[in-house]
Amino acid sequence: MRFAIFLWVSFVSLPCFSALDHITEAELALMHSLYQAQDRQISKTSLKTRLLENQFLLSHARKLNLSLLDRHASVGFDNAYHVRRYISSMLFHKFPQLTHTKRKALQISLSAEELKSLLGPYPNNGQYTEQQRQKWRQISMSKQPKITLDDILASQSMQGRFSLHEGDIGLLSKDVEDLISFHQLKNKAAPLLAEQKLSLTRLNLLALGELLRPSIQAYLGVKSQLHGERSDYVDNIRSDVSDHEIAQFYITHKKEFKYLQHISAFAAIFENQQDAMATYSNASRNNTRQILLNSGLRNHFSTSKNVQHLVQISRHHPKKWLAQVAFNNQVDELSRPIRTPQGKWALIYTTKPSFAYHVKDSETVRYRALQHITQHKAKTAYTHLFNQWLHSEKTKT
Question: Which pTM value belongs to this model?
Answer without folding.
Answer: 0.80
